[in-house]
Amino acid sequence: MAKPLSRFVCQACGAVSPKWQGRCDACGEWNTLIEEAAAPRGPGPAAKAGGGRQIEFVGLKGESAPPPRIGTGIAELDRVLGGGLVAASAVLVGGDPGIGKSTILLQAAARIAASGRRALYVSGEEAVEQVRLRARRLGLSETPLALASATALRDIVASLERETEAALVVIDSIQTVWLDALDSAPGTVAQVRACAAELIRLAKARGFALILVGHVTKEGTLAGPRVLEHMVDATLYFEGDRGHQFRILRATKNRFGATDEIGVFEMTDAGLVEVANPSALFLAERRGNVSGSAVFAGVEGTRPVLVEVQALLSPSTGGSPRRQVVGWDSGRLSMLLAVLESRCGMSLGQNDVYLNIAGGLRIQEPAADLAVAAALASAATDRPTDPDRVYFGEVGLSGEVRQVSQPDQRLREAQKLGFLQATLPKRAARAGRVPAAPEGLALTEVGHLADLIAGFAEASVKKRQPA
Ligand code: TYD
Ligand code: MG
User: Fold this and answer.
1) Each residue of 107-143: pLDDT tens digit?
2) What is the domain range of residue 451?
3) Would the CB of 291 count as within 6 Å of ligand 1?
4) How many CB atoms lie within 10 A of CB 36?
5) Using CA positions, which residue lies closest to atom 16 of ligand 1?
6) Among 267, 268, 272, 274, which is best to mutate for testing ligand 1, by the most ligand atoms less than 8 A from CB?
7) 395 found inside a domain
8) Separation of 184 CA from ligand 1 center, angstroms?
9) Which of 275, 308, 331 is the last residue of a domain?
10) Cα–Cα distance between 428 and 134 in angstroms, integer?
11) Whole-angstrom Cα distance, residue 85 to residue 198?
12) How many domains does the structure of the chain reveal?
């Protein structure tokens, strides 16, 4: 039987299938399979050539110097990177179009250039004049950043080969770069992968830090940057929606640092501005004395973040009730509603439930359960939560409230921001004694979700009459 000459590659996840299918078996996306020429079979060139050099294997013990870092001058970005860019490494920055990827990278590159290092910015999306215009808006026109507009990989590589001093190279975006040796269109998995591999190889050889920008699109016409994630050393995602001024930078992979750190920025007329105290910002627009609102004392990475959880209930108009969640896991909300119903006798089945994390932050911690439950109970009973109270704690299926990590840090942040009360899981004694509460903070420990609900008087749903 003849060898297949082509294969079908999913443009969303990179899975390979021998035949065309409407839906990718691996990731479940529709209409993402595109035909590509198959890679040659048989032993690779390395095996054929033979006579390789002997590798030296070493033990785990021993001294290795930490990798040299290049500070970007943007503390929030450095924090997410784990202390700055690492020389000879590759970072992928993903995010929806228009979220601010080009803006922050232009700012970072300009800062590095201003510090006396050579930084290059290659834009494949915008003309030189457009980038200049943005730089002028950002007040960066005077920085010695090297700017070019190019999309042909051959040209980019030829130019970078000659760079001996480069500390940083930004490619904006990897989806616009193309290699003429490949038949596929720019942005397809084959192109993106081949171009990224070449650029990463160059970064390792020349010792510069490489930043690749990648768009995330739902349509699947462009290759999602997912296929790149295993090739790069770190992947950062820029989150937030364009309607909000907050932007969250989150690492999902980092070979040189932790992955749970976030950087918080605010999009302003003068570009992205770092937010050193996100809690104050996220709570800035909170209005007291409104039912359905509770403050969650969360932790993102090493940093405590207080955010407002908002819940709204409205009588369902036939059919199955709606469950709309922004910024939290909808599966988790369903679970919490089930626990509230079967363990606490609080039925919300006849209501549409809307849940929102104010400010555009996306929370992944289960520790938010207790705050969400408080917001729901408050909405259901039409009784506001105490305006000076924070909540945190995980809820189990039997309604028990479980311990979460770093309770002391959460409490300290609440105290710092002027909160006076906290509802939290029963604290376990450490070394024979229960840790002391921060001064001025009254703690309410709850062992079961029902204890929390009892505080909200009768937990029956108040159905508002339409006005
Ligand atoms: P951009 O960095 O071009 O996004 P991406 O590269 O991720 O596609 O950001 C574009 C948006 O940011 C655009 O809607 C305008 C806005 N913006 C500001 O609000 N202030 C600024 O100073 C700049 C440069 C952009
Ligand atoms: Mg851009």
Assistant:
1) 999 999 999 999 999 999 999 999 999 999 999 999 9
2) 280-464
3) no
4) 19
5) 100
6) 267
7) yes
8) 30
9) 275
10) 54
11) 20
12) 3
